Structures are given as structure tokens and as C-alpha cells.
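Work package 3, deliverable 3.1, input record:
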Amino acid sequence: MSEFMFHSNLNNQNNLIKNKLQLKSRGETVLQAREISYRYGTGSWIMEDVNLGVKPGEVVGLTGKSGAGKTTLAKIIAGYLKPNHGRVTIDGYLLQEKNAPHPVQLVWQHPEKVINPRWRMEKTLLEGGTYTDELLQDLEIKKDWLRRWPSELSGGELQRICLARALGASPGYLIADEMTTMLDAITQAQIWHTVLHMVEKKNIGVLAISHDNALLNRVSDRMVDFSMIRDKYETKK
Amino acid sequence: MNNKVRKRKYSLRQRTIAKIVIALVLLLIMVVSSLLIGPDRLGVNLDLRNQSPSLDFLFGTDWLGRDMLARTLKGLVLSLGVGVLAAFASTCIALLLSLVAAWSSWTDRLVSWLIDLFLSVPHLVTLILISFTVGGGFKGVVIGLSLTHWPSLTRVLRAELLQIKQAEYIQVSKRLGKTRGWIARHHYLPHLMPQLLIGFTLLFPHAILHEAAVTFLGFGLSAEQPAIGVILSESMNYLTTGMWWLAFFPGLSLVCMVALFDLLGQSVRKMIDPYHAMK
Ligand SMILES: Nc1ncnc2c1ncn2[C@@H]1O[C@H](COP(=O)(O)OP(=O)(O)OP(=O)(O)O)[C@@H](O)[C@H]1O
Ligand SMILES: [Mg+2]
């Protein structure tokens, strides 16, 4: 296998667990953003030399001021933007999709933008692959939402559909960009309970982005402040 | 205030629907009455030559005593058939090319170049050339019309796709592992549906007029077919003898049908795509 090829077989959970064990023994981080620098067009640099790592089964919280560039970093890691410098790797392999789901799935800050307005919810949900009734129950998605149009659901309800869709693609890593900001405290707790359960069961690595420090403190194993890493401060793990 | 706006919008919609229904009913009457005309009405009757319009023969008769009303109706339906076929084929070509343009940057350049090429030469010239090359007749006209009427619709569809290609939900679909073919079928096609429908109805009148034009010029349908273009060009020889009705009624009917379709197209556009229609 060529060194720069990365195939979707990483989605194979057995593989992931094996990798994790190997890498843990070597003390290596699995999903890595290395020395990322980015700016929009010829604007000022949003970030320079950023390093960030997430292990399978780990929840990393990323905080930072509004407009700092958290979403931008999330898009780079999930393959939506190409960094000007640096690279994103899993196990040292560059990520390359070839008509297979990307191993890092992003749950977007604004769900209404990432849903085709001409589709009923069921089709959107199936875009990620399959879904189980159990997952719908855990995310408190009601069956009758699936027959509705996107404009007939609230932002928080759409966000849960997006989460279910991302999990349907059985990703190795999940980036949750302000995923539960729109939800009330009880639903928020319920959703995170489900996600943390998935993290344990399927050994998914999660990067949780929010400016709600209290929430991040509760759900994450480790916290990273974006203002600390954006200017070459964070130590490489 | 808000109420007022709503009320006006509602009645605009109703008026539009009424227009569509009227246009469809008129077309239906035309097709049905032409189907009811037996061969006897079209036959030669030398006793009744050169009759000017009367209650028996509303459109008069020609130099062989054929009923001009019957011939005109047959001609209109023939034009309608040519129009439907050509507009449908043109729409398919436009859809295909716009999807090809959305494939990658070099296919986009190729399609844009093709559009500019075809738009830089007058329709009628390319139409005559193509129709002549493939052997003329019904087949020649339909192929010629189909191959010349796609550019403007393709341009609209291409612009539409260029915009939606950047939409976040398309980007997400790609990261979920969907192929370009899948995205074209499930995202692009439903998005283009209104434009396709509008494009189809607006291509109609164009195709019909151009069919009549090439036929009139002698490059289109053959003389045995009672097309409006054939009727008009034959009538030219008799106009000098004062038989104005030979050209007047068929020509007027053709213009009416074209106007009807234009009305239909504009109404459909107003209903499906109010934003673009207002521009
Ligand atoms: N497409 C774009 N083109 C140019 N500049 C952009 C673009 N998107 C974002 N920016 C700028 O990049 C900076 C970082 O934006 P980003 O969305 O990453 O912030 P964020 O940390 O996610 O903020 P928030 O907490 O409010 O979501 C902002 O100053 C923003 O104005
Ligand atoms: Mg953000």
C-alpha cells in the first residue's frame, strides 16, 4: 500500500481498535493536524502552524473566541478546505477520499445550510448510509419528522438529523461544531450521553467545538484553547 | 398591509392558472378538431375552386378547391408535433450539456465554448445547414431544430448548476462518499426541474416559428405535407391574383398558436419561479 493512500477500510472498526492498541503502545496520536496554516484568499492568516491531535475513543474540547477560526480548522480537518501549509493525517497517512465516506465527519454549526431543502428528512438521513431505530430513539428523533420538509423542523431538530446522518457514515472521527448550542439543557445532556456512548462502543474520536466551557469541561477528556494553539504555542503531542 | 400583499399574490396565482387552463383548452380544441377532419374535407374539389371566405368555408378554398380551414388545422397540428419533438430533444441536450459542464473545469470551458459558437451564428443558418445535411424532410427539420435550440437553455442551466455546486449540502454529500453521478441524479436534477419545464415550454414557439420559416424557404418539410410553411410558400404564387385568404388565415393561426405557447411558457414560469420571472 502506498504511503499516501488512505482507504475507507479505516472505517472498519476492528482495524481502528487494532491501530489504537498499536499506537497507544508507541504513544502516538492517531488523527493529527500538523503545522496547519490557513488564510482565506489573500487575507490575514487565520492560523499559523497549528498542531492538534485526537485519539480514537478520546473527546477533545476546543474553545476559543467567536471568529477565532475554530470552524475553519474543523473544515480543514474534515477535508472541506485545503490548508495553505501543513497536512491532516490519520496514522501518518494523508486522507484521500475516493467515492467513500470521509473518515472524519463534521457536524456543522448551521444545520439548515447542509440539508437539501428539496428533500424530505428521511432522504437526508439516508444520505449518510443506514440508520437504526435505536439511534433515532437515542437522539430523540421522532419518526414522523422523517416525512417532513426541512423548513418544518426547528434548528435543534435539524441538527440531530445531521448528527444521525454523520454517524450513519460510520466515521472514525467526529467533529461537533457547536452541535448542541441550539438545544435546551436536558436535550443537550441526552445527545451528549448518546455521543459519549458511541465513542465508547465504536471507539470514535471526537473534537467538540464550543464557547460553552462548562459543557466542554463535562464532556471532554482534555481541553484545548484555540488562542493558545493558533500561534505556534501548543506543544506537539 | 401584510394582508393586502397576500391577497394580491393569491389572485395573481389564480390569474396565471386561468391563463394556463385557457391556453391548454384552446390547444386541445385545435388538436381534436384536426383529428375529426376526415380525408374528404382535405380532398380536391374542382367545382369549389378559389372561393373567398364564407360561412361554408371560413378560411376559403384554394386553387384546387381544398378547404383552407381543414388544411390550416392539419398544418398547425403537424407544426405542434414538430415543436414538441424538437423542444423535448433540445431540452434533453441542454440538460446533458449542463451536467457535463458541471463535471469539471475543462468540460465547463468546452461547453461554454460550444454555447458561444452556436450563439454567434444565426439560428436559421445553422438550422438550414443541418436540416439540409441530414436529408431534409420531417426528420431533417426535427434534427436541425433540436441541434440549434439548446444553447440559451444550456446557459441558464449551467449558471444554475454553477451556483448550487458551491452549496454546502453538495460539499457534504461528497464527503459522505456520494459519487458525482449520484449527486447529479439526486441533487442537481430535482433542482433543475422547474427550469427544465419552463425552458421546454418557451422553446416550443421558437421551434414552431423556425420550422415554418425553413419550410417556407423550401429546406424543410416536403410539399406533400400540409405544413403551415408549405401552405404559405405555395400561396405566394396566388397572392398576386388577389386571393389574400390563402396566406392570411394560415399565417394568422400560426402567429396565434405561437403567442398561445409563449403565454403558456410565461405563465408556467411565473408560477414555478416567481423570482426569475420578475426580472
Ligand atoms: N469564507 C470566508 N471567507 C473569508 N473569511 C472568512 C470566511 N469564513 C470565515 N471567515 C473569517 O475567518 C475568521 C474565522 O471564522 P470561523 O468561522 O472559523 O470562526 P469561529 O471560531 O468558528 O467563530 P464562531 O465561534 O463564531 O463560530 C472570521 O474572522 C471570519 O470572518
Ligand atoms: Mg464557528
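The radius of gyration of chain A is 17 Å.
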